[in-house]
Amino acid sequence: VINLGERLAERTTFADVGGLDSLKQTIEMKIIKPFTNPGLFSKFSKKTGGGILLYGPPGCGKTFIAKATAGEVGANFYPVHITEILSPYFGESEQNLHNIFETARANKPSVLFFDEIDTLGYSRSKSSSDLMRGLVDSMLTELQSINTNTDKMLVIGATNMPWDVDSAFKRPGRFDKLVFVPPPDREARKVIFKLKLHGKPVDNSIVYDLLAEKTEHYSGADIENVIEIATENVLTEIMRTNQERLITMEDLLAAIRSTKPSTLEW
Ligand code: ATP
């Protein structure tokens, strides 16, 4: 049984996403505004529909910003890994895909997020499997059946390997906008540290500029990991010494020293 997404337990919005300002603007204009002002867009005969395809190194916020997009419009969020819907039985993958679209349609407004879109294109370009080709065609049909104005459904795709994405997905009305999600720059890293440390017991030695400076090439997920390590170390110490204390700058710097950035390998 496929886990068909999640309702937004606690809402994530653009305010939770550090950096990525131009991506936020693109999503705003391409998917949020047509969603919230359908009348205006149809008056100007502005084409709507189609999805956005996000690409970039892992851990830099593709899933996170898709979830935040759902949060912005108060929609249910359905994250789907393509590999989850694959089945060796004839027609079953297509049926799984169809069920996901139907569930999202029945629970409008909704944002469908397909991760690892390249899994489809890769196999298709290699013509390795008829089963996969059927799924690609189904995906194209499902995408084109969405009328953003009336359906209140948005589709966002993501990939770490844009060069493997089937070109059929990139035509108008499909994933027709390809957007790079870069590793966070210095300013974005600073914001991400602030966001992720918010609410944690930190002392006043924290210098966010320095944390940002020391984490060049770190992804958002890497930063989250740094904070996780520092927190765990402090907790372990508290348990051992039975003396409570706050998280310090040195704890965070030590955690940074014990880790490596992941975006360089991309
Ligand atoms: P993958 O390609 O591996 O699926 P991804 O690009 O979808 O990676 P996410 O799952 O969105 O990456 O990011 C992992 C975690 O890192 C998120 O849950 C989020 O907490 C944090 N994160 C990443 N980028 C940002 C960001 N720009 N602002 C705030 N948090 C971020």
TrEMBL record:
Domain AAA+ ATPase residues, every copy: 48-185
Top-level taxonomic group: Bacteria
Keywords linked to the UniProt accession: ATP-binding, Nucleotide-binding, TPR repeat
Entry annotated with the keyword Nucleotide-binding: yes
Keyword Nucleotide-binding applies: yes
Family: Belongs to the AAA ATPase family.
Protein known as: AAA family ATPase
